[in-house]
Each structure stands twice: as structure tokens, then as C-alpha cells.
Design brief:
Elements: H1 7-59, E1 62-64, E2 71-73, H2 77-82
Antiparallel strand pairs: 1-2
């Protein structure tokens, strides 16, 4: 004679497994999204660095106010020491 758990217990186990699988699926989806966003972030960051280099070539070392476009020159460490 086969031994079995109750139908109620089996149903509960099956529901729990379904819920676990759904959560694991969601985690996998979120990991995939995160991976894609990290690549996108790296790409944009590279664009930013390249544009910074272009601006530095044109204006020298500067700090830019991103609200209004004004900028101030960055004094190099050597210049600061010479002025002391």
C-alpha cells in the first residue's frame, strides 16, 4: 500500500513550489534588466568622459555649472603652490 500525504498538504507544497519558481523567474528577469542597464550606464559614462576631453581640449581644465553653462578654471596644483 502506497503512503501519501494528504491532498491539502500536497496542494500546499505545490503552491509553494509554484510561488518559489515565480519569484526565481522574476529575479532572473530583474538580473537581466540590471545587466542591460549597467551596460547602458557604462556606455553613457564613456560618452561623458569623451565629451569632457573635448571640452578640456577647447577650454582647458574647467568646472562647469550645468545649470547655466558658466565655468571656472581649475588651478593646477603647481600653480596653487607657486602662489603660496
Amino acid at each position: 500500500m502506497e503512503k501519501k500525504i494528504t491532498e491539502e498538504q500536497l496542494t500546499k507544497i505545490q503552491e509553494q513550489q509554484t510561488n518559489l519558481n515565480a519569484v526565481l523567474h522574476e529575479v532572473g528577469y530583474l538580473e537581466t534588466q540590471q545587466h542591460g542597464l549597467m551596460h547602458k550606464f557604462a556606455s553613457i559614462n564613456q560618452e561623458v568622459e569623451e565629451f569632457k576631453a573635448e571640452l578640456e581640449e577647447q577650454y582647458g581644465a574647467i568646472n562647469i555649472n550645468v545649470e547655466d553653462g558658466t565655468y571656472t578654471e581649475i588651478k593646477k596644483e603647481e600653480e596653487v603652490l607657486e602662489n603660496v
